[in-house]
Design a protein that fits this description.
67% helix; rod-shaped; GGDEF_dom; 12 helices
């Protein structure tokens, strides 16, 4: 089977690469959000309707000062109504009010305290005149007209200097804004380049992972195919092995059976045991059918479950005629579940020979009566029993006259 050998990757190195990719993605997301916020903020500022209108406001104030001065002259000549002058004062106040909190000269190359003082003076006068101007008060408005006539001409020339200074400040402000936008666009360009490089790294990583996944998938398919082939071969070998094992067990001189630990399922019974127990099918087998005594079968099963192994259990087994046999057992695993392997063999001939030897050893060959050895053995058993259960034991001895003649004749 062909395969591509790949060097193993340690878990720490894999985690380090994963952390680097996550950090890269988060950094790209943060940079993108920051760039979008910067673009939106600049667009919002550029969309303001009052952007860079300081110079226009200064020109409007200068123009309104001239109109107010002309209106004051007309009122003194009696050519203008007092309420019209009030309107002109209010117009001037509305124009100067927008510049009260406006830093008009922040972008001048040098400090212009005199110019700022002139603007503050004009703002202060417009505020004072607006507070004193009353509708329907000709006398008070006429006094204001006299004051305007005296104070305002002195401020017309300085107001021209205010307009020049505001123009210079505005030009510098626009230039600073241009430089800021230039830096912003350069930064956005580098940001886009970084995002492009990051995207390229991510794409290359995805392509690399895709190729590795395809390679692993191909290798896995080959391994699965090889595994299926090995499983098939192994299954065939196991089938052949099980068939051979069944043949061996059927030909074995022992009686063999394999049943579940609860006795409800019979996995195997060899032909010899089925014939001995006269079973029609293997499923008819049970321990109670093997043992001639049901209690003995229960004791054997309990002992085997407790010890996991039993050898040389001599008992009477069932069959066409009960016979003596030696039973052994093992607890093992069969198809993932516990099972009991039982085997036995016939020892009837051995038991018969043992009985014959016992008779020869304990009886007199001539009379068939128990001999001295049997007498001593039986006496010892009686004495032990009497001692164990604390019971009396009596020995009776008889002396029969002329018994030898009886013994010889009979």
């Amino acid at each position: 089977m062909s395969s591509i050998a790949t060097p193993p990757v340690s878990p720490s190195r894999h985690r380090l690469k994963l952390s680097a990719l996550i950090t890269l993605v988060l950094a790209m997301a943060l940079v993108t959000l920051g760039s979008l916020w910067l673009v939106q903020e600049q667009a919002r500022q550029l969309a303001l309707p009052t952007l860079h209108n300081e110079l226009w406001q200064a020109y409007q104030i200068d123009n309104e000062m001239n109109h107010l001065l002309d209106a004051a002259h007309s009122l003194r000549k009696g050519e203008l109504d007092s309420d019209d002058l009030v309107v002109r004062i209010q117009v001037l106040r509305s124009l100067t009010q927008s510049l009260e909190r406006h830093h008009l000269f922040d972008f001048l190359p040098e400090s212009q305290s005199i110019t700022q003082g002139t603007l503050d003076q004009i703002i202060g006068l417009s505020r004072d005149w607006d507070a004193r101007a009353r509708w329907g008060d000709p006398q008070g408005v006429r006094q204001l007209a006299e004051e305007i006539h005296q104070r305002l001409p002195q401020l017309l020339k300085p107001m021209h200097e205010v307009m020049v200074a505001s123009k210079i400040s505005l030009a510098n402000k626009i230039d600073a804004k241009r430089q800021l936008l230039h830096r912003c666009f350069i930064g956005l360009g580098w940001t886009l380049l970084g995002l492009l490089l990051g995207g390229a790294l991510l794409v290359s990583r995805l392509v690399s992972d895709y190729r590795k996944a395809r390679t692993l998938s191909h290798n896995l398919a080959e391994l699965n195919q090889h595994l299926e082939q090995r499983v098939s071969e192994r299954t065939a070998e196991l089938s052949e092995g099980q068939a051979l094992l069944r043949q061996i067990l059927d030909a074995s001189p022992s009686d063999v059976a394999l049943i579940s630990d609860d006795g409800k399922q019979v996995h195997f019974v060899n032909q010899r045991l089925r014939q001995r127990l006269e079973l029609d099918a293997s499923s008819d087998f049970s321990l109670s059918r093997l043992f001639s005594n049901a209690r003995e079968a229960l004791h054997f099963s309990e002992a085997l479950q407790a010890r996991q192994r039993l050898d040389g259990w001599e008992t009477q087994l069932a069959g066409a005629e009960p016979y003596w046999g030696v039973v052994s057992g093992r607890v093992l695993e069969y198809h993932g579940r516990p099972a009991l392997l039982i085997w036995s063999y016939d020892i009837s001939l051995r038991k018969q020979m043992e009985q014959e030897l016992l008779v020869l050893a304990t009886t007199d060959a001539l009379t068939g009566l128990n001999n001295r050895h049997a007498f001593l053995q039986r006496a010892g058993e009686l004495f032990k029993s009497a001692e164990r259960f604390d019971q009396p034991c009596t020995l009776l001895m008889l002396d029969i006259d002329h018994f030898k003649a009886i013994n010889d004749n009979h």
